[in-house]
Amino acid sequence: MEEPVDTATAILASAAALLREHTFDDISYRALADEVGISERTVYRQYPTRAHLLAALSNWIEQTHFPLPPFVTVADFRAAVHDRFRAFDASPAYAFVGARASAISPTLDAEPAYITRAIEAMLDVSASTLNRRDRRRLAASLRYFSSAMFWARLRTGFDMDAGEICDAFDRAVGTMLARLLDATWAKP
To answer: Signal peptide span per the entry (predicted)?
Structure first.
């Protein structure tokens, strides 16, 4: 017996299914309503604007298709991001939704994403003596370089595949970390 699915989740699942054949811009609220078997008005109640739908769809895809495994060390973080970039290559339509959603202004009252909190926790352990300002800057940089936006820019702008994007990620992260490796980093 299947678990009941709430309307908002059913809309997001249908939007994700439609992404296999259409771009996000080509998915209408009418098509979503027809897929789910609800009225178009109900779709609008759940997602008043396309920006709301895009943000929610991006979050749902992130949780269901690109979950990030827990990481504690920088090495674990790098491995998780490499896996994520390979997953993006396997489902580029979903990854591009995440990239596009990160480029719009926020529409949801959401707390920081799991990856942001996990990066901050990793830095609390790995770079416990790093001052707050530099830790926030480093966390923001690591968050960007591990994002769908970074992947999408390198994929479309330079026609790179996941392996090449992983190399670019490693170089960027390595450069950032090398500047802080003095007495700042906790010794393993």
So the answer is: none
Helix, strand, coil percent values for the chain (each to nearest 5): 70, 0, 30
Contact 187, 129 (CB under 8 A): no
C-alpha 148, offset from chain centre: 5
Per residue in 148-163, pLDDT tens? 999 999 999 999 999 9
Widest CA span of the chain, in angstroms?
61
pLDDT tens for 13-40 read 999 999 999 999 999 999 999 999 999 9
Taking each continuous run of H as one helix and of E as one strand, the counts in the chain are 10, 0
Length of the chain: 188
Question: How far is the C-alpha of 145 from the C-alpha of 164, rounded, in Å?
Answer: 13
Alpha helix ranges (H) inside 113-182: 114-126, 132-145, 148-158, 162-178
**Tokens (6 digits) for 20:** 């296999």
